[in-house]
Amino acid sequence: MKKKFIPVIIVALLIILFFAAGPLYIIKEGTQAVVTRFGSIVDVHTEAGLYFKLPAIDQVTVYPKRILSIDGDPQRIPTKENQFIVVDTTSRWRIVDPKLFYTSFKTLDDASNKLSDIIDSSTRTVVTANRLSEIVRSSNVINERNIKAVHAEDEETKEIESLVNENTTIEAVTRGRNALCEEMTIDANKLVPQYGIAVLDIVPRQIKYSDELTESVYNRMIKDRNQVAQAYRSLGEGKKAEWMGRLENEKRTISSDAYRRAEEIKGQADAEAARIYAEAYNRDAEFYAFWKSMESYANTLKDYDATYSTNMDYFRYLYSANGR
Hints:
Layout: H1 2-20, E1 24-27, E2 31-37, E3 40-45, E4 49-52, E5 58-64, E6 68-71, E7 75-78, E8 84-95, H2 98-104, H3 108-128, H4 132-136, H5 141-152, H6 155-164, H7 177-189, E9 197-209, H8 211-283, H9 285-300, H10 316-319
Antiparallel strand pairs: 1-4, 2-3, 2-5, 6-8, 7-8, 8-9
């Protein structure tokens, strides 16, 4: 009876050992897998689910199915005007054929190295064939704004621009950065399909002048700003002279009006004084003569110790016994 159960036990043990060796594996959402047996690809799974493999024989290599990113190395590239700039790009890509990808690279690190070289090459090809303005700008909005600003600007701004004597129209863009990025992507995708890869986009993350151009660009910017500053100073000096001229004219006008008014008031006062004197004289001519003589004595005799005169009538109020 025991001998009858021995084969059943052996089979059960073999089944347990078989499942303990891991014949089943799970492909999660967002991943895909390549199954190899003795180095040869035997199966590819791109959908999530539970799958079977031969334990200890089949090897499962899992790759991400999602979109991946890669940052390129900053590289010094000449533009169409032969101006050297430093371009730093970032890109998005994904694995579209796991089988080709496995046969080409096997690991993501190897793929990143190769893809980085392809992206750098495509970036260099496009940048060297285009002007700097095409690389850094996407539209001509800045020129349209400048045109509107010219129509709306005041006379002072126009005068400043005439003094600066610079053209504010920036070079027009015919293609723009977005079109160049798309061209980089198309150029890169010509080389990557054989590796089971698709490049989704290539975008310049940073664009800057090379070291030897940076100082000259700064110096030119300083020169331009100094020119604008000098234009403002010249305009200010002209406005100052204009306002000082107006001030002097207004000052002379006010002074002339004030002098005329003062003379009128003085004339009126002299006339009023003469009228009062005449009225006082008519009331008592003798007293008027006496009073004026006393005023004259007070004004003239105080500064002299002795007075000699043949005009005795002048001193009649001093020599007359009755003061007449």
